[in-house]
Write a structure and sequence with these properties.
single chain, alpha+beta, 2 domains, two-stranded parallel sheet, 4 helices
Length: 87
């Protein structure tokens, strides 16, 4: 299930973690500016493709994220965090 989570500060963190363990959290709504200050890179979505799930195991392997796509997503976020090289 895709959800929008609403919560503020450290009080909401345990609930957010529990929710994220079972559902896709599409957005977090908060009034805490420190939460946004902690983001070091844009959010990267690594999940199944937005297509009907095929019956064929070969096609299923293409639809669902595998280790390589997850690692590529993590690397893309880490690359976005690197400061630009001085020219």
């Amino acid at each position: 299930m895709r959800l929008v989570f609403c919560g503020t500060a450290s009080f909401a963190v345990p609930s957010l973690r529990a929710t994220a363990a079972r559902h896709e959290v599409a957005a977090v709504v908060t009034e805490d500016p420190a939460t946004f200050a902690r983001l070091a890179a844009p959010v990267k979505r690594v999940c199944a493709l937005q297509v009907p799930i095929p019956y064929s195991p070969v096609l299923e392997d293409h639809v669902f994220p595998d280790r390589a796509r997850i690692i590529a997503g993590v690397r893309a976020v880490l690359e976005a965090r690197k400061p630009a090289a001085a020219a």
